[in-house]
Amino acid sequence: MKIEILGTGCAKCKTLEEVAKSAVAKVGGFHSVEKVEDITKIMSYGVMSTPALVIDGVVKSSGRSLSVDEVVDLMKK
Predict the structure, then answer these.
(1) Which of 1, 10, 25, 48 is catalytic?
(2) Is 8 a catalytic residue?
(3) Looking at residue 44, which CATH number applies to its domain?
């Protein structure tokens, strides 16, 4: 599973990256977490508000911070 955190480096973006890493640790298995700061790539997803969470190429959340459990739930869907 490929998880991407879209954001230009704000505090909320960094927090979501840490939350995603904690969710991956909680779930176990092999999952990659990548921080995407390139505005062109962020826009290619159609995201207008960051931070955004993308799982396997699908935007699951944008414009808000998530808890570890919320990210785990989104990983299971």
Answers:
(1) 10
(2) no
(3) 3.40.30.10
